[in-house]
Design goal:
Blueprint: E1 2-6, E2 33-36, E3 39-46, E4 57-71, E5 77-78, E6 81-84, E7 88-89, E8 92-93, E9 97-101, E10 104-112, E11 126-127, E12 132-139
Parallel strand pairs: 1-4, 4-12
Antiparallel strand pairs: 2-3, 3-4, 4-6, 5-8, 7-11, 9-10, 10-12
Amino acid sequence: MTYAVSGNALSVTIPSNEWVISGNAATGVFPAGLTAGGVMDTYLTDNAPTSITAPTTITGFYQTSYYLTVFSAHGSSTGQGWYNAGVTAYAGLASSTVSGGSGTQYVFTNWGTRASGTNYAQSNAITMSGPITATANWQT
C-alpha cells in the first residue's frame, strides 16, 4: 500500500506505506485537518477499498480554506472567517459613520488592502486565493 494526498495547500503527513494481506483493509489514517497561517486543509474522504487484492495507492482528499480578516479601526465589521479556496467573499461594516466623541466623527471612505469598493456594507467581490486582510479606510 502507498498513500498520497490531493487538494491540500499545507504539507500533510500521510500514513506510512504498508503491506496488507490480500483481502484485508488498509490501516492508514489521514489527519482530519491542519491549520497554519490563515490556511486550513480539511480531510474530506479517501478512495480506500474495503478489500485490498493488488498493489494500490490510497489518496486522501482535502478541501483548502483561507481566512478572511476584516480590519476596521472604527465600528463593527462583517464577513470575517474561513472560506473555501476559490469562492467569493465580502467584507462589510455595520455603519458608514462612527462617532468619535467630543465632536469627532469617522466616515468610511473605501476598502483597501486586498479589498476594493466604496460601499461600506459590502466590499467588491474578494476571490479567496489565500489568506486575505480587507481593511476599511476612514476619514476624520
